[in-house]
Write the structure tokens for this entry.
Amino acid sequence: MTDAFTPSDDFSAQFDSLLAWRRDVRRFRTHPLEPGLLDDLIDRACLAPSVGNAQPWRFVSVEDADLRAVVAESFAKENAAAADAYEDDQARLYGELKLAGLKEAPVHLAVFSEAETERGGGLGRQTMPETLIYSTICAIHTLWLAARSRGVGVGWVSILDPGDVSKALKVPESWQFVGYLCLGYPIENHDDPELVRHGWQERIDRSDVFFRR
Amino acid sequence: MTDAFTPSDDFSAQFDSLLAWRRDVRRFRTHPLEPGLLDDLIDRACLAPSVGNAQPWRFVSVEDADLRAVVAESFAKENAAAADAYEDDQARLYGELKLAGLKEAPVHLAVFSEAETERGGGLGRQTMPETLIYSTICAIHTLWLAARSRGVGVGWVSILDPGDVSKALKVPESWQFVGYLCLGYPIENHDDPELVRHGWQERIDRSDVFFRR
């Protein structure tokens, strides 16, 4: 134990503001991140909680144009299939939404979770092995917030075939695909979700999600 | 869009400090949280990203002593079973670890994910339905960081039988048990994981988790 966390008086309020302005970004400027910033964000992500301290997160920066094209094709294919599931007004609205910034974002980060890691010695995951993946999700969210604290936007693309991405990137079979992140400086800043703004799904109240027993 | 996020110059450094000092807390003071603070933390958690803005997180504050006893029993049973899996030095070390603060923590929060929500209209989860649970994990981590920003520690208990908890709390069948959180003011503050300090699992390097393709 060294000195404890001693933030400034208004830190908590600023942190709340960070949460409000985090958002999923799909409109990026194309210029690159500052040198060293991606390494720095990965270091922050590694401070996430993990079950048994297993640290199962694996990040792949996808830089090759051909690999990016495979991902963009997977998105285009799966997004077209998803669009077919909607009808009438919902179909029209779905078609108008911008759901990814794959073409513009300067950084693409594929995130995997190592399912067969020996690190952590199995501690904490005998009844709930899924906590390994949960740890990786915490790392993604840590990276997301750390990025936003430095002015960088993140968008999470889930409309992909996990098999397509894993195969293209030639990752070990024990790595489970968890998410694909676009990073870059945002063109716009918002404190409300794009899907609220465009009338897809409203926010709900605390009373809808919080109960006492 | 209103005014963009405008943190103070040292916000990013303070946020990094928050990440370092977040930690999984298992040693709590027993006195209650400030009035209104738990509601406030739930409100922050609701700012987490969610697929299609589905907001599938469900929080149950477990306040009844008999319900808490069921959870404590499930932990004791599963922890004893887990301990049996280790041998020699590892078994001795496992036995010495304090893995939960269920007896002392003033707040117990069971977290579930609504698997059958219609909110979000299925957007973003046709190829990866597991992103609903991932959204709930992001809410947990948001709550965790918001708590720490206000001086409150969180410990995530995963050594439980999910069925035991769901049954005791009589939640809808479509709610998937994701995690059980203990909240309270910590007795100690640390910037290194308990499992590192006690020699269970070291931290690994960025080069072990970050790759470029």
